[in-house]
Amino acid sequence: MSSPDVTVVIAVYNTMPYLTECLNSLVRQTIGAERMQIVAVDDGSTDRSGAELDRFARRHPGLFTVLHQTNSGGPAAPFNRGIDAATGRYVFFIGADDLLGPEALERLVTAADEYESDVVLGRVVGVNSRHIYQDIYQKSEKDVDLFDSPLPRSLANTKLFRRELLEQHAIRYPEDMRIGSDLPFTLAACYHARRISVLADYDYYFAVRRFSATNITYLSRHGLRIETVDKIMTFVADLIEPGRRRDAIMVHRFDHEVARLLEDDVLRLDRPTQEQLHRTVARLSEAYLTDWIAERLGPETRIRLAVARHGDLDDLLAVIRQDAAEGVPPTVERDGRRYAAYPGFGRLPDECFDVTGWADWDAKLDAKSFTWSGDQLVITAAGGRPESVSAEDIPAQVGVSGDVVTIRLDVAEVLARSGESGQRRAVSAQPGPFDPARALGAQTATGAAGAAAVRAARARMPRPLVRRRGGRLFAIAPTVDESGRLMISVVPLTARRVLARLQRSPGARKNAG
Question: Any idea of the CA torsion for 441, 427, 397, 433, to the nearest 10 degrees?
Answer without folding.
Answer: -20
